[in-house]
Amino acid sequence: MSAVDPATVVLAAAAALAAAVYLYYYSPRANQPDVHPLQLAQQASVSRVRESPRESPVYRSKSAPEGARLLATPPDEPRDLRCAFRAGRRTQRPDALRMVAGDKLCCLSSEELAGRVRSFAAGLLRLLGESAARPRSAVLALPGSAEAVVAFQACIEAGVVAIPVAASEPAAALARVIAHSGSAVLVTTAALATTLAPLLDAPALAHIVVAGVPGSSGAATLIPFGDLEQGAVLDADPEISPADIAYVLYAADAPGGPRGVAVTHANALAALAGLESGLPPTQAVSSSDVFMSVAPMAEAANLALINLALMRGCSLGLAETPDAEEFAAQACLVRPTLTYVNSLVTRDLVQLFRTHTQQYPWLERRLFESGYRCAVDSLMRGVAPKVNLWDLLYARHFRSALGGRLRLLYVDGRRTPSKDIEWLRAVHGAKVIPVFGPPETSGVATAGQFFDYATAIETHNVGPPLACNEIKLVDAEHAGLLAEDQPNPRGAVAVRGPNVAGLWWNDPSTATPDDGWVVLPCYGEILPNGTIDIIGSRETVLASALSPTGRLLVERLEHALASSPAVIDVCVAAQSASSGLGILVYPQPMELAAAARRMKKEYRLQSISSYPWCAEYIRQRLVEAGQQAGFQWLAQLPAASMRVKLVAGPFSPANALAFSDGAFNRAAVQAALDAS
Q1: Most exposed of 9, 272, 365, 487 (fewest Cβ within 10 Å)?
Q2: CATH top-level class for 539-676?
Q3: Cβ 113 vs Cβ 97: under 8 Å
Q4: What pLDDT is attached to residue 24?
Q5: Are 88 and 311 in contact (CB under 8 A)?
Q6: What is the pTM of this model?
């Protein structure tokens, strides 16, 4: 056998090296932006005339500019949600529902799902009876399950108002919502029914339908879920009008007690039209998609996307969980193409994968970090990371951890930290779309543009208005926010459009104003490109001597502090006119471990509050992050005026520091700070 020519070996090695360098460095930079930059320079249409100097101009989606009608229904114009869901169920597929049981995937076909929905709808009407108060309603306190999807669709099928609530919320809070709803029927699990029984004070509640083996519930009648699916047939379709209430959304953190927003069929359809309008035709949601529902159905944005999936005949995967490892394990089986994750799951998911990369050997970790910076550079230039060496080595692994098919990832644009959105875009390869919309807007009012990869990274904006509504800012003088502020208008966010619900459930005194504008309980700033940054709420914009402006925008400060790589969760507690800040932090464990090695300090996460050096180290990192974001005054604060307390676990419903939708429980945070 002849020896290999040394020149050939050298040439082959040089070619391999050149290919590696090209794939790693030049290939990402050779790509042109995925859309012309001018299309992203102005993402909203702005009215020429301001109605009042106390208001900003009116902003609209560029696909529904001034003078055009706002979208009110999807292109196929279903009359109500029932029509939309029936069209989706006509898609014949064996996996209309995908459920994970242990390490196996169980499926329910379109035909089986349609049969269960109609049977449960008939049973529900039989249970409620003709004498029940109108509109008839049912509270759905179910975790992600086949029963939750069947019960929700059955309510829509029967013309019964569905009131989904998060089963993970504290039982006392659930009991208050059930009592306020005035519903005669509660659909829940057997375990939760037992927990709720001693707390319920709801005279109108007559029946509890339970999934699982019934126990004892006190005064109300217990009915197995399966019993409502037996022996009942819908003889005729109950009459439904687009103006009828389809479902009610309760805000988990509503101040002053439970308040539910009544969403009509027309409101819900307009929200679906707005969501669809934000996607390019080639990315439209279709029956070939799999939507994975991770957040509770009670979360407004998640329910809007569930409605979209049901309308388009998608396969619906159910994996409601706040735990990222469980989400990833189930995603490997469900293999979703689109999903929505709230800030609670997003923070845990990013932390899970960051921890994985931090355990790489030194050289490999440096290679990954270099590739990550390369991917972020591509994103900021408007180029989605495509084939390169880093993608081949690492990104494919992260994508496969979530099923390998994810193409659309919707996140809570208001509460998800910018660094987490950056990570998801750079590493997972999906188009990450931040959305914003409280219950008053049927869950959606804005969404990031499909090709704007910098959305929510540099400015934490939540995108421009959807084509189903228009937005303006109204002076909020008590908060020091004015439409004539420079360089950008600021104020209370006002929304108008067919997706805007104007009624509070069981509160007939509320109604949409004659001009249709509903002022939301949050404040915003409109950026030069027409996107919106949500900068706070009525409870988190305070008069403060700490800030040079005399006003402390607590949520904006939290976003700035959360950009520090040394922290995961940050909640600022401050009182009006206070001369100090209290900050509760869940630190980045690997960052503190590395600092402990450098400083030769003792450190254990589970007893972190007993190590004063940890709190001081994190305080310094927070000051640095705040200064980089423009909060220069933090450096002048004495340590006593910026008190930092560390906790050993992420903020979650389990430790009462967050609600199920990811919003911080600020009362619990204040209590934790006061206890230190």
Answers
A1: 487
A2: alpha beta
A3: yes
A4: 61
A5: yes
A6: 0.92
At 2, the pLDDT band (50, 70, 90 cuts) reads low
The residues, any chain, with a CB within 8 Å of residue 603's CB and separated by 6 or more, are 592, 593, 595, 596, 611, 614
pLDDT grade, residue 360 (50/70/90)?
Answer: confident
The residue to which tokens 């400015």 are assigned:
459
Mean pLDDT score, 382-407: 81
Coil vs helix vs strand at 583: strand
Q: What is the share, in percent, of the chain residues with pLDDT greater than 90?
A: 56
> Angle, to 10 degrees, between the axis of helix 362-380 and the axis of helix 418-428?
100
| pLDDT per residue as tens digits for the range 238-251 | 999 999 999 999 98
Q: Which residue has the tokens 């996107």?
A: 531
Cα→Cα distances 193→198, 215, 230, 370, 562, Å:
9, 8, 22, 52, 38
> What are the domain boundaries of the chain?
81-89+104-240, 539-676
Sequence-distant (6+) residues with CB within 8 A of 27 are 386, 387, 388
Closest to 531 (Cα-Cα) out of 466, 452, 463, 468: 463
Asked whether this chain's domains 81-89+104-240 and 539-676 adopt the same fold, the reply is no
670/573 Cα distance (integer angstroms): 6
Q: What is the CATH number of domain 81-89+104-240?
A: 3.40.50.980
CA dist., res. 439 & res. 479, Å (int)? 23
Residues in contact with 425: Cβ distance below 8 Å, sequence separation at least 6, in sequence order: 379, 431, 432, 453, 457
**Residue 471 and residue 465 in contact, taking contact as beta carbons nearer than 8 Å:** yes
522: helix, strand or coil = strand
Please determine, for residue 592, whether its predicted confidence score (pLDDT) is greater than 80.
yes
pLDDT tens digits for range 159-184: 999 999 999 888 888 999 999 999 99
Name the residue among 304, 318, 308 with its Cα closest to residue 287: 308
Q: Is the dihedral of CA 56, 57, 61, 64 positive or negative?
A: positive
User: For the chain, first and last CA: distance in Å?
Assistant: 79
Contact 217, 238 (CB under 8 A): no
Give dist(CA 161, CA 263) in Å, integer. Answer: 9
For the record, the structure tokens of 451 come out as 């090709």
Cis peptide preceding 385, ω within 30 of 0: no
Strands 185-189 vs 137-141: parallel, antiparallel or unpaired: parallel
CA distance 225 to 149: 13
pLDDT of res. 128 = 87
Would you state the pLDDT for residue 359? 85
